[in-house]
Specification:
The chain has 7 helices and 9 strands. Bound molecules: guanosine-5'-monophosphate.
């Protein structure tokens, strides 16, 4: 097992733009590799098994919790679990790469505490809650009741921003991507 790899954690309320920023960094910085989470939710749109997520049943998820296979996991939305498998981090570190996470706010803070010193934790801040709601609604991939749950969760999550190493404002996606690139490259070079 390889030790002492680095981790770059991107957290934000859903709809703040973190997935786009993480995808940009993966294209630009070859030392990074995406941590594929396990989830019990169904695949959306063109999401692929083993690329975007490991889509598993709730029964399998609970079995893996019992076997202590997760570094962190959460019931992010009621009845829907998401988690980071220990083997995922080890797989990426074994290649000599840095793990990059697209993860919810509590999960991000959990990882930051666990790997403090080796981790850079970035909170992506949307311009406002109103803009966030517009982006989530415009995405059109969720049912209205799921959307409501995402809004409520987002409102709470915005309060966690000061606990991260860096707050990255996403008023303009291109600017935020460029800023993220500088921050991550500096972290990797130190
Ligand atoms: P989505 O359903 O939109 O793909 O993800 C919902 C939320 O769960 C997002 O904030 C996403 O970043 C987060 N998430 C994805 N994987 C994990 C994980 O492994 N652990 C935790 N705690 N959250 C995750």
């Amino acid at each position: 097992m390889s030790q002492n790899g680095k981790l770059v954690i991107f957290s934000a309320p859903s709809g703040a733009g973190k997935t786009t920023i993480v995808q940009h960094l993966l294209r630009k910085i070859p030392e990074l590799e995406f941590s594929i989470s396990a989830t019990t939710r169904k695949a959306r749109g063109d999401e692929q098994e083993g690329k975007d997520y490991y889509f598993i049943s709730k029964q399998e998820f609970l079995h893996r919790i019992a076997k202590k296979q997760f570094v962190e996991f959460e019931e992010v939305y009621s009845g829907t679990f998401y988690g980071t498998l220990r083997t995922e981090i080890e797989r990426i570190w074994a290649k000599g790469k840095t793990v990059i996470f697209d993860i919810d706010v509590e999960g991000g803070l959990h990882l930051k505490r666990k790997y403090d010193g080796n981790a850079l934790a970035i909170f992506v801040q949307p311009p406002s809650l109103e803009v966030l709601k517009e982006r989530l609604t415009g995405r059109g991939t969720d049912h209205p009741e799921k959307l409501k749950e995402r809004f409520e969760k987002a409102e709470k999550e915005l309060n966690y921003a000061p606990q991260f190493d860096i707050i990255l404002k996403n008023h303009d996606l291109q600017t935020a991507c460029a800023e993220a690139e500088v921050l991550v490259k500096n972290f990797l070079n130190n």
